[in-house]
């Protein structure tokens, strides 16, 4: 018996041992032993005194019964311990599921008093749970929403049917917030009717819902303002929305479109490219675009764009009849313009060709006249005039063979002009060398002619006068864009040099230099004689949209 009690004591954690100082606890094995002995003495005192002494067999049976009862008590004790542990686990689960739930739970009396609330509801209101119990719910409801709270609670207790409503609650030191309340009726332990309610914070949900509603209004406003037609169909091909532009194309109102099938609206579309596009978009779940002609009663060309979605099909359609007609007219005008341009190109080429030929005839006449003239001065003047005419004829020759009839590549022209002058003036190749540093810049005809004549005069002057006798030297020509919108032509030699100021001397007897000054003014340019070992003359003038 004593060993059994020791085992029972060992099963109870946290109980003090018999060796501890002071009286044993009320529920310790020693205390239970003393109480049991006291009860036994009391019962023995009340028992009859004439009982006979038990026989050994009776004592043995009694001991057996006591042992069986002892074992039963131990088993019951173990069962109580398991039940207590399960109860503690259940309480922990209750705490997790009730107090720490993501929504608020509360119990209300018929008078609207808060009988019980979980921690989440208290946290929603920003107060402690103790501050809620036995407080009226109305104390935490926005005044504007008191009526709806009262109405739903009244219906709940009168009918017993669940109630759902939205109202705003007051939060401590914060703005009111929207909640959704789901309430059911129940009975408490005493049989009284109470309200069990679930309270959810729906402020974020309302914000998202409002954003979606705003987005829907914006999209609807856009669809109703565009000139393209728009229809939205559900999975059964029924029209659920149509904008005014689309309704106008069908000759109906927006209300008349709703509920009609796509094939009622597009009567001729079933086997047309439109119908094929619609079915392809839905079956393949891919956007599809098609341009096709719709016959009676519309007799119009349409561009249709189909966009499938899980809800159905969105359809944009644009009347492109006028656009196609305009495109056809534009193409026809372009063809006519190209034909006219070709004719004008041929005409301009012929003009340049004839001008070049006429200038060549004039040059030949001047050459013949120079050969027949005995005066050396007259002969020189005629030869210079012939070279100037040849210079202009070379420009028209370039224009005749160019892809552009209004401008020339001056680098190519300058090279050919210099080559021609070199052949004309240099009898001993190698005595005078030429260096060309010319960028491929195109200049328009109105600037090409005076620029070419200036180059001709300055090169001719260098060939004739810079290297008298058998003197050797170099002539260098450069042509660049000196800065944006400005071109620079420079002719330089290392010969005997031009006297300073000779270029700008208005009384100079040189016809060539006077011509250069006049042509520079025509170009709105400037001439500068820069100091060097020989002569360096720089012409600067506006490019007037010259291009590389």
Query: What distance separates the N and C termini?
Result: 120 Å
| CATH topology (fold) name of the largest domain | Heat Shock Protein 90
Shape estimate: elongated
Mean of residue pLDDT values: 81
**Cα gyration radius (Å):** 57 Å
Helix content: 40-55%
Largest sheet: 5 strands, antiparallel
Q: Looking at this structure, what is the CATH superfamily of the largest domain? A: Histidine kinase-like ATPase, C-terminal domain
Strands in their spatial order, largest beta sheet = 2-1-5-4-3
CATH architecture of the largest domain: 2-Layer Sandwich
By CATH reckoning, the class of the largest domain would read: Alpha Beta
Structural class: alpha+beta
Low-confidence stretches: 1-21
Which percent band covers the strand fraction? 15-25%
Number of domains: 5
How many strand segments? 17
Number of helical segments? 15
Keywords:
548 residues; alpha+beta; Beta-Lactamase; 5 domains; 15 helices; 17 strands; disordered N terminus
